[in-house]
Amino acid sequence: MSSPAHELRFGDTTIDFTGRRLWRAGEEQALEPKAFAVLALLAAEPGRVFTRDEILDAVWGHRHVTPGVLNRIVTLLRHALGEDAHHPRVLHTLHAVGYRFDLPVASESTTGDDVPELTPRTRRRTVPAALWYVALLVATSAVFAWWWSSSRTITTRPVPPVAAAVAPPTLVVMPLKPIGDGESVRIIADGLGEELICSLAQVEGLRVIARDSTRLATDASADPATLVQRLGITHALEGNLQQAGQSLRVRLRLVDAHGGGTLWTKDFDRDASEVLLLQRDIAETVAGSLALRLGLTEAPSRSGDAEFLRRYHIARALVSLRDLPPEASTERAEREFRALLRERPDDARAHAGLALSLEIRAQRRPTLATTLREEAVREATLAQRLDPTLAEPYFVLAANACIADDWARCLSLQERALHVNPSNAEMGFGLTLSLARLGYLDRAEARARELQARDPLGRNGGFMMARVLDTLGRHDEAHRLLQPLPAYAAYARWFNAVWRKDYAGALRIAEAEIGGPNHPDAYAKRLAPGYVAASEALIDPSRWPHAVAEFEAYEKATGMANFSRVLVPGAADNAAPLIEELNEVRQRGYSTWDLLLWTKDLAYLRRDPAFQRFLRDNGILAYWRAHGFPVQCRPEGEGAVCD
Questions:
Q1: What does pTM read for this prediction?
Q2: What is the CB-side half-sphere exposure of residue 112 using CA atoms within 13 A?
Q3: What CA–CA distance (Å, rounded) separates 476 from 466?
Q4: Per residue in 97-147, pLDDT tens?
Q5: How does residue 86 score in pLDDT terms, banded at 50, 70 and 90?
Q6: Residue 429 falls within a domain, yes or no?
Q7: 638 falls within a domain
Q8: Helix (H) and strand (E) counts in the chain
Q9: What is the 3-state secondary structure (H, E, C) of 411-447?
Q10: In DSSP terms, which residues pair with 269 in a beta bridge?
């Protein structure tokens, strides 16, 4: 590593103020721009206590920021500095006051004439300079939303193993075991276990493993040592649910996953109508035992009785079943939510569930999308007004803003949804995809790594990370993530094999996976002949006319594009309609196909004049001008050039 000017060194750590980088043990630590701005402010004046308000004013201008945002940033900084919150070396918390940065005795700084020395005798003079520097950082950072933007640093290293002394505590919420044989108690136990993941994810400084990864890991083994290895957890919460009429009893045990010891065992008793209070009781107990704080402060409202709760959880589970036909999943869920709202018109969760089911129906029924989305927005707005702590309304409103190319609102709402429920993998997936759709691939990668840490085994974490890596041209890394994923990832696996020039492997995927019996996509059987023909043509180019004929047959039968067309020799001459079709997929809001527009291997798409129209007509160029260009793009004339 070279030694840039204006840097501060201590131990194995270097803060490069000019380059806005943090190095530790010879490796660059990925930091969000806001996180580095906070670090720069504190490190510019070692020994000074900055109050929380001073930090929020200097870095955020105190706009659209909740106290939990600063807590999250400090957690990221401790992670990057290798700090333990309970035994800090340089970054100290003064409870109810703020933060202080202390340098070890043996440290050195390299400064220029325009940067004050970091010594006690000049400390008084550095206050305006420090604040001016942070303001400059903020003004030049590419800021996407109210409080949260991802790092511009691209790292090719895999995610390191989670270490309890460095990373925040990581919790897995084991599925609750129902006590009794009734179907009702099983449904409530399943639903309550999932909602506990959401409630506990709101504990500041605690990482909670997402639902899908939890289920996949615990289905295989409930052994703590195995869960530590597969999920990187430090703690596990396990227990059971017992129902007696309208009364619910949840018996829980918090376990130290590394040592296997029980930290506490406790019973939580509530009426079924107080299930939200029950969740809060549990979250507060877990937070207190880990010396953390529950982020949300609003008192939850009452819910319906046990039967209402059972029906709500059935409907909510149906919304998540994306592999079933709409009439068997989201449309059934929609009918149930409407029935629940007839009984309890002011139930916020039922309104949120209805909004989500309408949005998913809109994605799957494009001919009805406009009408469905109008109602989804009304329901989401009402749910948000009734209970602003629910994530689904922000998710639905964000989806509509994204489709309308209102990128600032799109990202800020997605960030709000993720702030409310950090361990909801679908929320993380949506924000990561939006960043990638705007061309901010480095920030999408940083966001995807956090998603992968919370959902290491689920379909959202590994799949989204792989899609971003393939888009960046890092196909070997993507291949390792795609290999263990089930049948839904077959299309991505096929393209990855093509990018790696493993054409024989692509043919096997086309025949056995896309054309196989287990693919959940209803169109897979029709698409398979085109993928098989394209694989054969990549092996023997003389077969391309046959492949194109298969594409045309599929498109004529379905009215949908086969995006294997991007690989056809001479495809650059047909770039304009390909760009238009990929953008239509984006506007439907249901897939990641449009990331082909940013794929390194398909630079011809970005060189075509139609790409300039795409940037202009969809508000992307205007957003870049206001918030900063992606690292691979630069302004040129009235448009932009992207590598």
A1: 0.68
A2: 7
A3: 10
A4: 888 998 876 554 444 433 333 333 333 334 444 444 444 444 444 333 333
A5: low
A6: no
A7: yes
A8: 26, 18
A9: HHHHHHHHHHCCCCHHHHHHHHHHHHHCCCHHHHHHH
A10: 249
**201 shares a domain with 279:** yes
Domain boundary among the residues 266, 291, 316 is at 291
21 and 98 fall within a common domain: yes
- Residue ranges of alpha helices (H) inside 82-114 are none
**Cα dihedral value 573, 578, 583, 584, nearest 10:** 140
pLDDT digits (tens, 9 = 90+) for 633-643: 999 999 999 99
- Domains of the chain: total: 4
Residues 187 and 215 in one domain: yes
Q: Are both 94 and 34 inside the same structural domain?
A: yes
Best CA proximity match to 198, nearest among 20, 42, 357, 392: 392
Q: Which CB contacts under 8 angstroms, 24+ apart, belong to 567-570?
A: 567/498, 567/534, 567/538, 568/544, 569/541, 569/544
In this prediction, residue 514 has a pLDDT band, given cuts at 50, 70 and 90, of very high
The answer to whether residue 71 sits within a structural domain is yes
Which amino acid belongs to residue 62? H
277 and 370 inside one domain = no
For residue 479, the enclosing domain spans 450-642
If asked whether residues 277 and 322 sit together in one domain, one would say no
d(CA 620, CA 407): 8
Question: What CA–CA distance (Å, rounded) separates 594 from 643?
Answer: 17
The DSSP annotation for 582-624 comes to HHHHHHHTS-SGGGGGG-GGGHHHHHSHHHHHHHHHTTHHHHH
Helix or strand or coil: residue 63? coil
Least confident of 297-306, 446-455, 486-495, 614-623: 297-306
Q: How far apart are CA 8 and CA 27, in angstroms?
A: 15
Distance, CA of 241 to CA of 176 (rounded, Å) = 6
Q: Please work out, in degrees rounded to the nearest 5, the angle formed at the alpha carbon of residue 469 by the alpha carbons of 643 and 214.
A: 155
Single out the residue of 184, 213, 353, 208 nearest to residue 282, CA to CA: 208
- Tell me, what amino acid is at 412? S
My answer on whether 533 and 597 are in the same domain is yes
